[in-house]
Write a structure and sequence with these properties.
With 175 residues, the chain is of the alpha/beta class. The protein has six helices and five strands; from the N terminus they run E-E-E-H-H-E-H-E-H-H-H.
């Protein structure tokens, strides 16, 4: 299933007692470039009585990419791919939320980083990822930084050449 360079994905999300939905996502492409988007929430994710900061919701609605556009881009960029995540977030549930909202099948298979680098356990991999983020001065809450750290970790483990593009080069346009 995997072709060429490993693919990575990271999703940021909003969570309270009554709300849970993705707010931003980044993923890597076969050439090591990244795409990143703010996600416009589906109305079904926002109950009327939900306690959500109005400014944050306005930002997501104004800056967010409609789910159908995001789903189409993921179908184009990651078809039939195994896509690796840091395994810290509920990524599979978040991906399912996105694709369920638009009535489409997920075009890729999510896998934890340990499947790509089986010689290390999750805690060791996470320590190395955090170390790389610190060395590079990356803010951990930005999904493009999470993907970049995973690309660097794969490179450090000899699974690929050094990434040519950093998180500042992430493409915010889904075209």
């Amino acid at each position: 299933m995997q072709q060429g360079m490993p693919r990575f994905l990271d999703i940021e999300f909003y969570q309270t007692d009554d709300l849970f939905f993705p707010t931003a996502m980044a993923w890597s492409l076969s050439d090591g470039r990244m795409k990143t988007v703010v996600i416009e929430p589906d109305e079904s994710w926002l109950p009327e009585d939900a306690d959500l900061d109005e400014e944050e919701l306005l930002y997501l609605r104004e800056q967010g990419v409609p789910l159908i556009e995001l789903a189409r881009a993921l179908h184009e960029d990651l078809p039939d791919q195994q896509v690796f995540t840091d395994g810290l977030d509920p990524d599979e549930t978040l991906v399912d939320l996105i694709f369920d909202a638009v009535g489409m099948d997920v075009p890729f298979e999510l896998a934890p980083l340990e499947d790509l680098i089986p010689g290390m356990d999750r805690d060791t991999l996470e320590d190395h990822r955090r170390e790389l983020m610190f060395e590079q001065g990356l803010e951990p809450q930005l999904p493009e930084n999470g993907v970049y750290a995973l690309l660097l970790l794969a490179q450090r483990e000899g699974l690929m050449e050094p990434p040519e593009h950093g998180p500042e080069d992430a493409d915010n346009d889904l075209e």
